[in-house]
């Protein structure tokens, strides 16, 4: 069993797509181990997206991610990181495969509805960004 971090981004919350998107995630076999709704401060968003700080879109990205509440979710599944990235599709919805979450709901390469960690190492760091150890529920074995 492995974990990944999803974030339902501010456009997902604004468009009232939280329920639909979580439905796709659960139908694909992911279990929710932790979830909350937060409004990122500019400092928190800059910390989370530190790796992109030299990119030309960095300032726009920070203003988008702080434009409203978002919903970070810790997901558990075998092969969670890779399977979740397949489920959400390419960063740019125009390039995302049919049936992926971004293809169905995202507006453009920036306002792309949802985030998924890109490696197990980054998943662990990103999860720690939003959740304390106590907030991570041991859902493995509930069923
Ligand atoms: P994500 O992959 O979750 O994390 C980095 C985010 O930066 C990405 O989603 C988009 O929201 C945004 N992003 C990536 N590439 C671009 C781009 N070329 N122009 C604008 N925003 C981008």
Keywords:
globular, four-stranded antiparallel sheet, 7 helices, Alpha-Beta Plaits, alpha+beta, 38% helix, 143 residues, binds adenosine-3',5'-cyclic-monophosphate
What do these coordinates show?
By secondary structure, the protein is α+β, with helices and mostly antiparallel strands. It has a single domain (2-135), classed as Nucleoside diphosphate kinase-like domain (Alpha-Beta Plaits), CATH 3.30.70. Helices cover 38% and strands 15% of the residues. The chain has seven helices and four strands; from the N terminus they run βααβααβααβα. The chain has helices spanning 10-14, 18-27, 42-48, 58-65, 80-88, 101-105, 120-130; strands at residues 2-8, 31-35, 71-77, 114-116. The chain has a four-stranded antiparallel sheet with strand order 2-3-1-4. The longest helix has 11 residues, at 120-130. The protein is globular. The mean pLDDT is 95. The structure holds adenosine-3',5'-cyclic-monophosphate. The site of adenosine-3',5'-cyclic-monophosphate has 8 residues, from loops. Its EC number is 2.7.4.6. Its cofactor is Mg(2+). Its main location: cytoplasm. Keywords: ATP-binding, Cytoplasm, Kinase, Magnesium, Metal-binding, Nucleotide metabolism, Nucleotide-binding, Phosphoprotein, Transferase.
């Amino acid at each position: 069993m492995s974990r990944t971090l999803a974030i339902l981004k501010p456009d997902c919350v604004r468009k009232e797509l939280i329920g639909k998107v979580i439905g796709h995630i659960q139908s694909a076999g992911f279990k929710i181990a932790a979830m909350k709704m937060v409004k990122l401060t500019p400092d928190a968003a800059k910390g989370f997206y530190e790796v992109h700080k030299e990119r030309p879109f960095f300032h726009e990205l920070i203003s988008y991610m702080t434009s409203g509440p978002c919903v970070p979710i810790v997901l558990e599944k075998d092969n969670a990181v890779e399977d979740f990235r397949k489920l959400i599709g390419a960063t740019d919805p125009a390039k995302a495969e049919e049936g992926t979450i971004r293809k169905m709901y995202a507006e453009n390469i920036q306002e792309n509805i949802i985030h998924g960690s890109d490696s197990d190492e980054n998943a662990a760091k990103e999860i720690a960004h939003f959740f304390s150890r106590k907030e991570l529920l041991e859902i493995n074995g509930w069923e």
